[in-house]
Structures are given as C-alpha cells and as structure tokens.
C-alpha cells in the first residue's frame, strides 16, 4: 500500500514506514527454498482449541441473537472482528502501544493490537462492492446460458434476470493474497456462494489471527454451513485424515471424516509470498473465480523501485495472479480485484501513482473509489490508535481537528476475465 502521509500527485515512493492492512513483500525467496509450510504447521493444538472455543461461543451467541428477534444479516461490516471475542482476543485500547510501531514489528509482534485498530476501520463500501462481484460470479455459476441472466463483460454485471442476490450453490473458490489478519477474507466468507477460501501472507503471526477471524466470521454469518474445514494445502482433494474441521459435532468427529453432503466452508491458510506468485510456484494451484489483492501490490513496486525496473516485477506478479483465475464453465467470468489507498486524512482521493495508472492503461482495470474512514469511540482512543499505526504527526493533526473520525479514500481496481 502507498504511504498514508504521502501528498497528492506523488509518483515516487516515500522512504518511510508505510501503512497497509497486509504484511509487506519480503526479499525474494531463493529458488532452493520452495517448501512452503502447510496450514497444519500453523495450526497448533492450542490454536485449534482456541478456534473450537471461538466457533461454539460465536454460534451460540448468534443463535441466541436470532431467537431474541434479531437476524444474522443485521450485523455491520466489522462485526466479524468485534463480536464473539473471548478473553484472549478482547484486547483493550490501553494495551495498544502508545507510540508508532514499524510495519515489520507490528505484523510480527502486534497482530491482535493491529486488529483493534482495524475494528474501527469502516470498510463497508469495500465489502458491498466485493459482494456485488460475488453476486455476479454466483449468478453466472448458478444459471446456465440462456436462462435470462446475461453477463456483460464491458461492465462486469448481470444485465437481466432477478435483481436480488442469487441463490447460487456454494461453489466459488476465492483467493486473498497478502491477507494479513483476514479482513478481506472475512468479507468474502460472509457471502453464501463462497465455498473455499485461500488466504496467503508471508507473516505467520498475522495468519494465525486470520484463522481466528475467518472461523468467527463463518460461525456468525454463515448459518448455512456446519463447520470450517481447514485444508493443509490448496488441493481440496486431500484425504479425510489430512484436514481439520472446526464446527459442529457432526463435522468434527474423532476420526475427522466428513461426508460429501456436509455443509462446510473450506479454508487454506499458508505463508505464501508474492515471490511465490511471481515465480510461478502456484502453477498447480486450483483455479479461483475471484482473487483479491488488497493494500499489498504497491509493496511489490516499492521493493524494486527505480525508473521502470519495477514494471517487470509487478507484471510478473499480476500475470501470476491472473493465471490462477479460472472456472469449469468456459463462458463464466472471473475477476481480479486490486485495492489500494488513495489518501488518509482526506475526504477525496488525492494520491495517484504510476502503479495504479499502469493497472488502468496497460491492463484495462476499471477504477472506482470509496470512503473507508476510521471511526473511533473517543478522542483518547483516536489519538492512541492513530499514533500506533500512522505515527505521531497524523495523530496530532487528527487531535487538532477535534474529530474522532479519520477520513480515508480507497481505490478499487477490477479486471474481469472470461
């Protein structure tokens, strides 16, 4: 992600710690280091018990909420991060460091504190857009050609048929690259057409929190499923003794064997970097209908900045992501979505750079922007959390305004592929 303090119209990166909602790109991995740990390497017995506890508590709380007259759809966009937290996750704002923490240290040492800030980040417009994309993908997956639901490749939307969310089967595979603690993955997991989630990031500490957040989200939002099935790798055809189920007793027996009819969301969480993508190490990965790369691709550019030297690296990364798009139905569309910040502490987009311009001019990505403000509970919280992530200068500017809202604009670039 480009720097939040960067002024408008800047085309070169700033050599300061940067803002992002994902962990940054690392130095390229040597060709000899191609062995990527499986999901099971991150899933310790302690973490598995934690996930079981989170699932059952969240599911009990949600069922009680519905019985009391509420509805599962009444939650706001950050409910997945804010609801159902046990003592371990329920950090107080006072536990967040009252000083600026560098990106690498933050993602490795403070993933839970990072989530406290992210729970104040209103990305409901991003979620609504991604669900609109999934509606299109679910519509085209749930209806055959000639059923009156025509996909328009020029706009990326269904041009006829029911205007309501399609009741497509649970069949869409989605990938979140640079997933961090799983904020985008949680948005995707709420959609009933999503069957499998691939969540990849280079930081193990962030990925462990991704497990927690996605499992909680599915427990709260997806009452159509009974469990989350954690896959060791992207291969969904693994044997029953290779996966772990978090959820109902029916899907979590001693032998851990699920039947074909069990309603589950499949989840794969692995430390896969953009270097693996760029070098084509995911060539055998199952295809995805939707891939999202949020607040991350700019790091690929920044890691190799210098005139146009970054073009080849970014292009190789994008081609690697595009190669992962695919579907069993030749006429059905797929989509790659790139998300980057267009300015923090501004109510209108003010940040443009050569990366986003290249997405539009060289690849044909469609651009739109939305507001993604940070809404804090009080001024003390606003200053502390802003300082922790953005630094003292941004915190002082926010305090001087007297507002507990830190405005932000975010760009969304979409490339439809058929």
Observed structural traits:
single chain; 418 residues; alpha/beta; Rossmann fold; 9-stranded mixed beta sheet; two-stranded antiparallel ribbon; disordered N terminus; Methyltransferase; SAM-dependent_MTases_sf
Give a concise summary.
The chain has 14 helices and 13 strands. The chain is an alpha/beta fold.
Q: What does this protein structure show overall?
A:
Residues 1-32 are annotated as: Disordered. Residues 1-16 have a biased composition (Polar residues). This is Methyltransferase. It comes from Trypanosoma vivax (strain Y486). It contains 14 helices and 13 strands. The protein is α/β, with parallel strands linked by helices and 418 residues long. Strands 6-5-7-4-3-8-9-13-10 form a nine-stranded mixed sheet, with helices on both faces. Strands 1-2 form a two-stranded antiparallel ribbon. The longest helix has 23 residues, at 45-67. It is globular, with a radius of gyration of 21 Å.
